[in-house]
Amino acid sequence: PINQGNPKVLKARDLPSVVQYIESSACENVMLMLGAGVSTSAGIPDFRSPETGLYSNLQRLNLPHPEAVFEINFFRRNPVPFYTLAHELYPGKFRPTITHSFIRLLAEKKLLHTCFTQNIDTLERRAGVPDEKIIEAHGSFATQRCIDCQRPYDDAKMKDHIKRKAIAKCDSCQGFIKPDIVFFGEGLPSAFARAVPNLRKADLLIVIGTSLTVHPFASLTGMVDESCPRVLINMERVGDFGSRTDDVILLGKCDEIVLELCQSLDWEKDLNRLWELT
Ligand code: CNA
């Protein structure tokens, strides 16, 4: 339900008020939560957008249900669908978006505390967001290991296998090799648990391009103080956005909204400079 109360921190629940708040001394620690929607304009499909999302295009992989591609028990029986998808999503093929450069800009302006991302495409790093500011909650393609004996596997060999859509197997036990991407039912990286308590320090939470359906990630929105304004930038309203007095919902394409935000902050030149570097 939408909370009808007047905002307590912001002037109003709109973009100009968010801009004014960012420019004020009250806003020091900005936290971000990202999902696949941040990367769709780079050409990487998200999961759930109707028609363009991966889930509606996975029939060709012969899966019992779409989520199976990220289920460890299914992978154990049949790793081919995952490798097919990995081949399509593999980092290096895509250029970061304007929204990724906005994140770097927040870091350069010394406003970014932590960027929590569900994405596995590593485009935040590619855009130049400092490593120590990024929490890849669902892991990434940066490292990989055997699903049986857990032995790490060589980066270059993995890259070559995914390029050829060939299934990599462990040198010692012949188990399948899986990138350190968090599958359904697997625990999140320890860095995630260590970073979560910092949300209490947030002066501003910005959530971009996620359906907020995957837990525990989605529950982070509830961990910032009641007094912390929360901004949603997404194609649709998601989660419990609107239930707090200082929630702001900005619906539309994130690149366009981020650009508008930067124009109002007089950051547009900086934003374009960073994007041209990518
Ligand atoms: P999702 O469930 O597919 O939701 C995406 C959300 O973004 C939806 O609400 C869309 O309406 C919205 N959206 C799509 N395009 C835009 C846009 N241009 N501007 C604004 N909003 C947009 O994806 P989630 O990230 O919420 O789901 C979590 C999964 C998706 C994580 O485990 C990821 O690992 C996984 N995933 C990652 C990638 C990637 O790394 N790029 C790609 C696909 C899936």
UniProtKB/TrEMBL annotation:
Active-site residues per Swiss-Prot or TrEMBL entry: H138 (proton acceptor)
Sequence positions that bind Zn(2+): C146, C149, C170, C173
Positions of NAD(+) binding: 36-40, 46-48, 118-121, 210-211, 234-236, 254
Cofactor names: Zn(2+)
MF GO annotations: histone deacetylase activity, NAD-dependent; NAD+ binding; zinc ion binding
EC number: 2.3.1.286
Primary localization: mitochondrion
Domain of life: Eukaryota
Cellular component annotations (GO), alphabetically ordered: mitochondrion; nucleus
Catalytic activity: N(6)-acetyl-L-lysyl-[protein] + NAD(+) + H2O = 2''-O-acetyl-ADP-D-ribose + nicotinamide + L-lysyl-[protein]
Domain (Deacetylase sirtuin-type) ranges: 8-268
Co-factor note (free text): Binds 1 zinc ion per subunit.
Keywords carried by this UniProt record: Metal-binding, Mitochondrion, NAD, Transferase, Zinc
Subcellular location: Mitochondrion
Family per similarity comment: Belongs to the sirtuin family. Class I subfamily.
Record protein name field: NAD-dependent protein deacetylase
Source organism per UniProt: Crepidotus variabilis
Segment of the intact protein contained: 9 to 286 of 395
